[in-house]
Each structure stands twice: as structure tokens, then as C-alpha cells.
Specification:
single chain; 120 residues; alpha+beta; HIT family, subunit A; five-stranded antiparallel β-sheet; 2 helices
């Protein structure tokens, strides 16, 4: 069964695209966590980072060059932004189709609370 992202890319489900080429697509998240929250996804369905092969290197590199272009186009490149890729359940991945979150347009805050090592 195709992921929700594959269906958005195919036009079966509406999406508000900000970028699309032969390798990746990017669209606004329907449940944004910041003023700017874009999802950048490979057009090829790859479930998780654990499923990446050497054949996917060009596509995954394109995620980053697309992120740079999108940040520039949205006027947030100079002030900064955060890129996040989650992997599997414990990593917070909710859709089994690799995707990069581009967050910005306002301070995104600390990534995670400081870890206190219980051993030392």
C-alpha cells in the first residue's frame, strides 16, 4: 500500500507544494510545529533510513539541496532553520516513507533537553 506521501506526490491527495523535481517533492505539513514546516520527501518510496541503499545517494543528497533552495525561496535561509529526519518508532517516525522536516520562520528552540548521564 502506498504511503500518504506517495499519494500526495501522485496527486491522489491534495498537497500544497513548494518544490518538486524528478527526485524529490516538498509540501507544507498539515500539522505544522513552527511558522514554516515543510516536508521534503523522495519521490521514490523508501520506508526508513535503515532501508537506504547506495542507489539512493543522489536522491537523499537532493533532499538537502532542495532544503537549501526552499529556505532561500521562503526567506528563512539567513535567519536559520532546522532539518530533522526521524527513523522508526523510537526515533519518532510516523509515516513509513523517509521525509525531512524543514522548520523555521521563527526560533525553533533547543533540539532536546540536555541529557544527564546516570553513570557519571
Amino acid at each position: 500500500m502506498a504511503s500518504i506521501f506517495t499519494r500526495i506526490i501522485a496527486g491522489e491527495i491534495p498537497g500544497k507544494f513548494v518544490y518538486k523535481d524528478d527526485l524529490v517533492s516538498a509540501f507544507w505539513d498539515i500539522d505544522p510545529k513552527r511558522k514554516v514546516h515543510i516536508l521534503i520527501v523522495p519521490n521514490k518510496e523508501i520506508a526508513t533510513v535503515s532501508d537506504v541503499t547506495a542507489e539512493d545517494e543522489q536522491t537523499l543528497g537532493r533532499l538537502f539541496t532542495a532544503a537549501r533552495k526552499i529556505a532561500e525561496d521562503l526567506g528563512i535561509a539567513e535567519s536559520g532553520y532546522r532539518l530533522i529526519i526521524n527513523c522508526k518508532k523510537d526515533g519518532g517516525q510516523e509515516v513509513n516513507h523517509i521525509h525531512m522536516h524543514l522548520l523555521g520562520g521563527e526560533p525553533v528552540g533547543p533540539f532536546a533537553p540536555r541529557f544527564k548521564n546516570i553513570e557519571g
